[in-house]
Specification:
The structure holds 2 protein chains of 2 kinds. Chain A is of the alpha/beta class. Chain A folds into 2 domains: 191 residues, Thiamin diphosphate (ThDP)-binding fold, Pyr/PP domains (Rossmann fold, 3-Layer(aba) Sandwich), CATH 3.40.50; 128 residues, Rossmann fold, CATH 3.40.50.920. Chain A is built from 12 helices and 14 strands. In chain A, strands 3-2-4-5-7-6-12 form a 7-stranded mixed sheet, sandwiched between helices. A 5-stranded mixed sheet of chain A has the order 9-11-10-13-14, with helices on both faces. In chain A, helix 1 packs parallel to helix 7, helix 3 runs parallel beside helix 4 and helix 8 crosses helix 12. Chain A starts with 8 loop residues before the first strand and ends in an 8-residue tail after the last helix. By secondary structure, chain B is an alpha/beta fold. Chain B has one domain: Rossmann fold, CATH 3.40.50. Chain B is globular. Classes of the chains: A alpha/beta, B alpha/beta.
Chain lengths: 340, 318
């Protein structure tokens, strides 16, 4: 859809939506800058920042040496001084280089200093599998950071949320890890031209239904939606929740839906063991809503393996819409004891 | 920020640092303090000599051995004491303790419990100064152990490439806990690493205040005039153990005694006597005054209330 539709809403890609948020923030506030490997003339490994160095110059769209700990640390220091850094980690797997800076520094400075510091740092990073890039370029490590108080972790699934949540992350006085998915970059959606904010920490009901609740985030939220369509053909109306923010987690939204449907399937791309889906399920079963469940909750997650290279192997260990439908069928089967 | 233009003030500040950490050592020994602390005794000339080269608006980052940097910067002694005692009136309201004392607003960007952990932070402050066109500098204190960490390489390279106004002050106190510099490095002096990054590097006697001050002033001047970072190695010695639980099994009494003969406070006091700034033996009464100030700070802090347990849940997020 070209420009000029009502209210300045156009259809653009997820990649363009992320870029638009950065560009608008940088035009508005001279204290915002983007720093990372190959974000300048190259435009970022996934082309997210293409064209930005031409507008803002090398002083604000900064190609870094290969030094994740160093430039994340630099971002923390600049944030401590009141700047609004956006740091890009080229593949989310490389975030391991910067773990001390994120876990011991960014997350804790405010608390350790008795509430007298702010670290308004945004770390953008593409995660997830499905690209044939194998075990060190495909992981979904987001659950690690949910385990670290002081960090916020977001994972928008649509271009609309990508723009609105990135602008909200830039307003936020806390360090925010902003997960993008490589397979979402080319997905299109309606996005207003003007700046707007989508609040962090609020889930969204992306499809209403009465029979079963499917909770997803990021790319695999789309798998939940696709599964819901397939189930609808069978006469089952699934409610789909897009968690959007993993920390702080909007469990109230999950509880509301589960109260209605009595059945819960979490769809997550990270490995199943100690994944964020475990936290969703725990919050449900620890609450009064436990009594609304008429089946044990299920998780459709990545297998507990590294991501393999071969296309068929990779597909085998990842969640798919079909696996979500299958999990739903087990929960919907009225015969007792059919699900494991 | 402490005004350190007066030579007597330099001596007094070193005395305050020593008295502070000797008091902390005493409080641990008698079981009054819990947790742990790392003592700056012996290294006073480094923090004070560097601080004397700074101006209002400059910032520093400290280390786990950080009381000396905080006192030299001019942090309030009573609030520091209160933090060590875990009181609500402490710099961190009892949440940080010895290794996290900070006054970010004043420009003391925090001690740091992770070796090398503040090297990126100091570069970030320097980045902010450069982007904003301000002529302030950031000083990053760290020990010889941090030179062995990966972030040392990353940050020195970043700072060199972008000519950041940051001064990397390596306090080579001869030991990373028990690992001597001799065992931890195949090549010394550590400042020679500077040439690999294309930046200025210098090794000075870190127990000679004027030497530290001269080298730091030159580094600050370079940083302010846009010439980028300096790696300044101050060779010094920690008299006390790594932390309060150190039995000193990795070094000899003889070695410690030998280093103590180069004491930075004694040497500077003698120098001030020679210069006529200080009357003969006057340093002793100054030292007594410093001890009294510290006693008073801890006594007052000890009157302050404990934090409300519920406050443990506050300030995780802004």
């Amino acid at each position: 859809m070209p420009n000029g539709v009502p209210n300045g809403v156009r259809e653009i890609t997820y990649r363009e939506a992320v870029r638009e948020a950065m560009v608008e923030a940088m035009r508005e506030d001279a204290e915002v800058f983007l720093m990372g490997e190959d974000v300048g003339v190259y435009g970022g490994a996934f082309g997210v920042s293409r064209g930005m160095v031409e507008e803002f110059g090398e002083g604000r769209v900064v190609d870094t040496p290969l030094a994740e700990a160093g430039f994340v640390g630099l971002g923390i220091g600049a944030a401590l001084m009141g700047m609004r850094p956006i740091v890009e980690i080229q593949f989310s797997d490389f975030i391991t280089h910067a773990m001390d800076q994120l876990v011991n520094q960014a997350a804790k400075l405010r608390y350790m200093f008795g509430g007298k510091a702010r670290v308004p740092l945004v770390v953008r990073t593409p995660g997830g599998a499905g690209t044939g890039a194998a075990a060190q370029h495909s992981q979904s490590l987001e659950a690690w950071f949910i385990h670290v108080p002081g960090l916020k972790v977001v994972m928008p699934s649509t271009p609309y949320d990508a723009k609105g949540m990135l602008l909200a992350a830039l307003d936020d006085p806390n360090p925010v890890i902003f997960y993008e998915h490589k397979l979402l970059y080319n997905r299109k959606g309606d996005v207003p031209e003007k700046a707007y904010r989508v609040p962090l920490g609020e889930a969204r009901v992306s499809r209403e239904g009465e029979d079963i609740t499917l909770v997803g985030a990021g790319l695999v939220h789309r798998f939940a939606l696709e599964a819901a369509e397939a189930l609808s053909d069978e006469g089952v109306e699934a409610e789909v929740l897009d968690l959007r923010t993993l920390s702080p987690m909007d469990h109230e939204a999950v509880l509301r839906s589960v109260e209605k449907t009595g059945k819960l399937v979490v769809v997550e791309e990270d490995v199943k063991t100690a994944g964020w889906g475990a936290e969703v399920v725990s919050r449900v079963v620890e609450s009064e809503s436990f009594y609304a469940l008429d089946r044990a909750p299920a998780r459709v997650a990545g297998a507990d393996t590294p991501i393999p290279y071969n296309k068929n192997l990779e597909a085998f260990i990842r969640p798919t819409p079909e696996k979500v439908v299958e999990a739903a069928h087990k929960l919907l089967d009225s015969r007792a004891g059919v699900y494991a | 920020m402490r005004d350190l233009k007066d030579r007597k003030e330099l001596l007094e500040t070193m005395m305050l640092i020593r008295a502070f950490d000797e008091k902390v050592d005493e409080l641990y020994a008698e079981g009054t303090l819990h947790g742990t602390a790392h003592f700056y005794v012996g290294q006073e000339a480094v923090a004070v000599g560097v601080m004397a080269a700074l101006e209002e608006g400059d910032v520093i980052t400290g280390t786990h051995r950080g009381h000396g940097h905080a006192v030299a910067f001019g942090l309030d002694l009573e609030r520091m004491a209160a933090e060590l005692l875990g009181r609500a009136s402490g710099y961190c309201h009892g949440k940080g303790g010895s290794m996290h004392i900070a006054d970010v607003e004043a420009g003391m960007l925090g001690a740091n419990g992770i070796v090398g952990g503040s090297m990126g932070i100091a570069c970030g402050a320097a980045w902010a100064f450069k982007q904003r066109g301000e002529d302030h500098v950031a000083v990053c204190f760290f020990g010889d152990g941090a030179v062995q960490e990966g972030i040392f390489n990353e940050t020195l390279n970043l700072a060199a490439v972008w000519k950041l106004p940051v001064i990397f002050v390596c306090e080579n106190n001869q030991y990373a806990m028990s690992l001597s510099v001799k065992r931890g490095f195949a090549h010394e002096p550590l400042s020679e690493r500077a040439s690999g990054y294309g930046i200025a590097g210098e090794t000075v006697d870190g127990m000679e205040l004027d030497e530290v001050h001269r080298a730091a002033s030159a580094a600050v001047e370079r940083a302010r005039s846009g010439e980028g970072p300096t790696l300044l190695e101050a060779v010094t010695y920690r008299y006390l153990g790594h932390s309060k639980s150190d039995a000193n099994l990795y070094r000899t009494r003889e070695e410690i005694k030998q280093w103590r003969t180069h004491d930075p406070i004694q040497r500077f006091a003698a120098k001030l006597e020679e210069e006529g700034v200080l009357e003969k033996e006057a340093w002793q009464s100054l030292n007594e005054q410093a001890k009294e100030q510290i006693e008073e700070a801890f006594a007052k802090a000890d009157q302050e209330p404990e934090p409300d347990p519920e406050s443990a849940l506050e300030d995780v997020y802004a």
